[in-house]
């Protein structure tokens, strides 16, 4: 049983990613389970050259040493293709050639191509959500139920450019028997039902989830690697740890910003409790 941290290599780690990295690390350590590192690198267009190595160097500098080999989603295409065939056999997939323009005025996908079963290489593959209701337990936020069709519509499983969707890959990976808990950002809370739906169809056991608040700038915009949020400086790893512990609802002594990483980690592991994490969806990062 393990926890995991799963960054996309779209840019260097920023303070918001560090909150998720340290939160998931401390939860895994508290459970006395391994903490795995997975690189979500299926989307080559969004990946940034060098980001993957920079992320790993930064984790290392913060004493966040992952267990076992790094998993790259780009090495697992065959596994995702198997899951895709499984779904195909269940007759829940369809090909969609709706343009963005056509869908522009719809809040969710209106089901236009549901009956389309002929393959063409420039079509996306969607999954039919029918009237499915999915209940997602979250350790921080309780249970939430979603009517998939009204909340999201039939969502994309393989993109028009033939890239496997984040949802399919993540459902397969997080549904693996190895993973028993997932700690990640609040921005993914409402993505969880789609992943749980896929896990259910693929007969995979969903992990336990906890969604931590995301960090935003003063205008309420989420810090994001892709949009160039200021990277954390590995040279300030101690101070970054101190700030992160506070953001996670812990109260380290004032002089802890000068402690060695080893001590900060030890203090964090002893003090860590999911229940202490602030309940809000977002927190403003003072710069
Ligand atoms: N790769 C995603 C990201 O960097 C997170 C995926 C997840 O934790 O499920 O935003």
Describe the structure.
By secondary structure, the chain is α/β, with parallel strands linked by helices. It has one domain: HUPs (Rossmann fold). It has helices spanning 15-30, 51-61, 77-89, 100-103, 148-151, 166-174, 192-201, 237-247, 261-271, and strands at residues 3-5, 35-39, 71-72, 93-96, 124-127, 133-138, 142-147, 156-158, 181-185, 208-212, 214-216, 282-284. The strands form 5 sheets. A 3-stranded parallel β-sheet has the order 1-2-3. Strand 6 and strand 7 form a beta hairpin. Helix 1 (15-30) packs across helix 9 (261-271) and helix 6 packs across helix 7. It is elongated, with a radius of gyration of 20 Å. The two termini are 37 Å apart. The mean pLDDT is 94. Glutamic acid binds at residues 6-8, 40, 170, 184, 188.
Brief digest:
The chain is α/β, with parallel strands linked by helices. The chain has helices spanning 15-30, 51-61, 77-89, 100-103, 148-151, 166-174, 192-201, 237-247, 261-271; strands at 3-5, 35-39, 71-72, 93-96, 124-127, 133-138, 142-147, 156-158, 181-185, 208-212, 214-216, 282-284.
List the main descriptive attributes of the protein structure presented here:
elongated; alpha/beta; Rossmann fold; 3-stranded parallel sheet
């Amino acid at each position: 049983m393990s926890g995991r941290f799963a960054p996309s290599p779209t840019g260097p780690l920023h303070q918001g990613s560090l909150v998720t990295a340290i939160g998931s690390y401390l939860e895994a350590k508290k459970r006395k389970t391994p903490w795995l590192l997975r690189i979500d690198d299926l989307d080559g267009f969004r990946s940034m050259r060098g980001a993957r190595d920079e992320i790993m160097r930064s984790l290392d500098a913060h004493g966040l040493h992952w267990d076992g080999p790094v998993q790259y989603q780009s090495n697992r295409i065959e596994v995702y293709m198997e899951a895709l065939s499984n779904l195909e056999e269940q007759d829940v997939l369809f090909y969609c050639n709706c343009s963005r323009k056509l869908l522009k005025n719809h809040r969710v996908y209106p089901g236009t191509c549901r009956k389309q079963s002929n393959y063409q290489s420039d079509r996306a593959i969607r999954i039919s959500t029918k009237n499915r209701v999915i209940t997602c337990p979250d350790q921080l936020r309780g249970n939430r139920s979603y009517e998939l069709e009204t909340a999201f519509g039939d969502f994309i499983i393989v993109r028009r450019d033939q890239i496997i969707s984040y949802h399919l890959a993540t459902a397969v990976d997080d549904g693996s028997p190895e993973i028993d808990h997932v700690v990640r950002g609040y921005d993914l809370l409402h993505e969880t039902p789609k992943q749980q739906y896929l896990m259910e169809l693929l007969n995979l056991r969903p992990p336990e989830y906890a969604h931590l608040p995301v960090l935003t700038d003063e205008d309420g915009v989420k810090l994001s690697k892709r949009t160039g949020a200021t990277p954390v400086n590995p040279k300030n790893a101690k101070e970054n740890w101190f700030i992160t512990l506070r953001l996670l609802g812990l109260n380290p002594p004032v002089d802890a910003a000068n402690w060695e990483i080893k001590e900060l980690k030890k203090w964090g592991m002893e003090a860590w409790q999911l229940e202490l994490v602030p309940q809000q969806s977002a927190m403003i990062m003072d710069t």
